[in-house]
Amino acid sequence: MSIVMRINRINVYSTQLPVKGGAYKMASADVHSLDSTLVEVVTEDGTTGWGETCPVGPVYQPHHALGARAALAEIAPGLIGEPLHSVRYLAKRMDERLNGHNYAKAAFDIAFLDLIGQRLGVPVSTLLGGALTDRVPSYYSTIVGSPDETARIAADKVRAGYPRLQIKIGGRNLEKDVATVHKVWEAVGHKARIAVDGNRGLSVAFALQLDRLCQNIPFVFEQPCNSMEEISMLKRRLVHPLYLDENTEDLNAVLRAISLGIADGFGLKVTRLGGLTKMMAARDLCSIRSLPHTCDDAWGGDIIAAACVHLASTVEPRALEGAWIAQEYIDGHYDNTNPVIIENGHIAVPQQAGLGVKPEAGVFGTPVVSYGC
Hints:
There is one protein chain. The protein has twelve helices and 17 strands. It is of the alpha/beta class. It has two domains: 7-121 and 358-368, Enolase-like, N-terminal domain (Enolase-like, domain 1, 2-Layer Sandwich), CATH 3.30.390; 127-348, TIM Barrel (Alpha-Beta Barrel). The strands form four sheets. Strands 7-8-9-10-11-12-13-14 form an eight-stranded parallel β-sheet. A hairpin with a 2-residue loop joins β15 (342-343) and β16 (346-348). α2 runs antiparallel to α3 (102-120), α5 runs parallel beside α6 (174-188) and α9 (251-260) packs parallel to α11 (276-288). The longest helix has 19 residues, at 102-120. It is globular.
């Protein structure tokens, strides 16, 4: 069967995802609602593929919702009429239209794979090299909160089946961060793996102090400081393994961190790296050096969630730190027939062709803008 299809129309939507239960507190910002951007790529025969990108506000990374839609406006007109015979070819076409802005291009990359998977009758995980499991572990991320409340939530989530916890710290005095780590350890012990995530909110000095004050507690220290230069100052001075997250802005950054030996693992984001095809390359780089990593994204609904889970299912289980999705923090689904959900701390890999998620008609309202022949 020929897989050549041509892009006939591109619809761009915006949808608000309010944070359930109050603000999502990180070291860098308090987030109350997320503006997610959806792309619907329609082929000549009416088949639709979906992609999504959802920055966590304008300060978590150099990404923001209006920037994503502005970037899509530069790219989309040049994709109309193009054949869907090669995702690499379409990536080249996007780069010819706009330099950088990987987080916007990622939405198209996801939609292209969704379309090709549907045409071939296989799930996206097959296009990414093939699933190794039909169920991937997730992890729960707490907000920056009081030590006692964070410990209570951590214990609840372990009872709910989560095998890993990400504990947010930073943006406040060191005493509370240290107390939070100790309280969580007292509450869950070895029942779950723990990552302590600074979201770039600590100085080198504070990171070293926290490391020493919690040296008997097993955890991985995720992105404590702002820059890769600061991270390199920490390496070989910490007791705990060091993971990079926000600094992995593209594949070059991942390769640099691996070659310099400053990362023991990664928190990888699909849209930050430019989509699932670039995440495959990062996955394989990590595999070469046996570096564990996550397969997740900053935020988003069922489309982003499905993309993360498909990719996670192709990672060697011993290297997979989990797939984080925003389901615990948002209400409702784009696709109520085949929602992507966490059950007992794990997520079933969609088995339908493509992403396995098809947003219900009208769920996003009318397009913000449409491009067509």
